[in-house]
């Protein structure tokens, strides 16, 4: 019978023999057979490696004489006789003599053999004792390391099913060790990128190249409410013969480091947001613009839906009453969302007024002057957040799950509230968000406070300014008139520009345009005094240069004011217009028969210089001619030469037949710019 006859037929019985392991090869286990007389009758090649004797040297020899030291001979004969006579196996370590003369300790497993003739033999299985001890120590060390290691360790077969896990991995993923065995990798690792991890691990099995320190984040079954982080490393396992046994995985929990890094990153982003707010919030002295800037910077870094609501009493610069439990009237100033959402329909539209009862959270916020935080919004919270039941339903549909309101406080006064909601951001508001929102609200509140008081002062000055300007009829004797006054657009400040139309005797009309250098209520008040004086001197029927001479004396008595002024008197009977100039911009004249031009007048010195004489120049106004008087705010800018701007003014006067009101609008629209920092007075007269 050949050796092949002992090979199993895998095709016939379906048995697929597993590949041999390499452990016996590592241990170099050898075998020998000794007959009852003590002679060696079988000798393996491994025995030759272990003892140093070849088969020719060992077979037929007495084993005891070949490799037993004389002092151990008696003990060996006794053990040999006991094994053959009693049939009991013997195991132990025993020193033997190597062929090279050295003494080596061998690990023996001795047992009796009996053939079909009844003859008995002794079978010896032998391995190097030191090698066995080293392997045993290594196994024990590996076992203790695996059991006691703080790093999660797992062994996986080539199909990536668990064979073994240590206690640390149990603690990391919260799954008992026995529940791992036989399960796949994706069944225990709650990572969103498990497919790529499995692909990389199979590559490790194929190439043998380790995959080290791969950073992954997920939520383990043992703690699904919180995010954890792990560092994963994979290695291929091979036996001494190079056969792939599977893979080893190490899992290090780096959650604390991950959270510390996330918190540091969060702190950096918060500081960046505050720094950004310092630049972007409060760029103008407009309450509405400041509120919009606050809402825009809070989305989406802080909230998904943001509203800025200010108490109506605060906007009116009325000191609010002490906090109580009553309702409050809010004016919505800004509303911003990170993305389209029905939550916007639940909020008050900017510019509108809304009354909120005392039990509403935003009202509670302004009454107490403290933040109101609802980490997890429930059905009972929505009625206290929304203005009514319909708005509450919209907020529920939008997925509002966390709410925060912080007061807008400046100089100890509560101005309103910053209202924050989260819908798509899965994290609830926390105390750090309260601190950040309060910081942003505090900065914005100061800007809103400055803007509301500035607007109050501006409105007062504008009211004064407009009250001092004439409300003249559109027609005087021989003239058709139109006028405009426009405050500075960039600074929203009121200046001292004015115009006037004064009826004189004999159907004559005085036309006046002036500009008090400066801004604010003082400039407007000075303008009013000069306008009153101009009317008084005009009633005295003085010549234009004489009127300016008297106005110059009055201006000199005022504190450090410089005023430019153009005073003209038109006589419809003679069609002549007598004009005197005190440092003012030259008027423009245009008619059906001649193009637009600037009148060549002596510029004169501004009023308030003192001791300067003025001259009167005469111009003719035929029927249909337009005389355009204006202040420098219409044509002067910071970025263009004045000559270019005056040419632009004349270019807009190409249609003298255009209605005067349209001409006023055209000049203001065409020449004014949002960045202009000066106000404008404009007076146009057409001879009829």
TrEMBL record:
PROSITE patterns: PAS (PS50112). Residues 23-87, 138-208 form the PAS domain. Keywords: Hydrolase. The keyword Hydrolase applies. Gene3D superfamilies: 3.30.450.40, PAS domain, PPM-type phosphatase domain. This is SpoIIE family protein phosphatase.
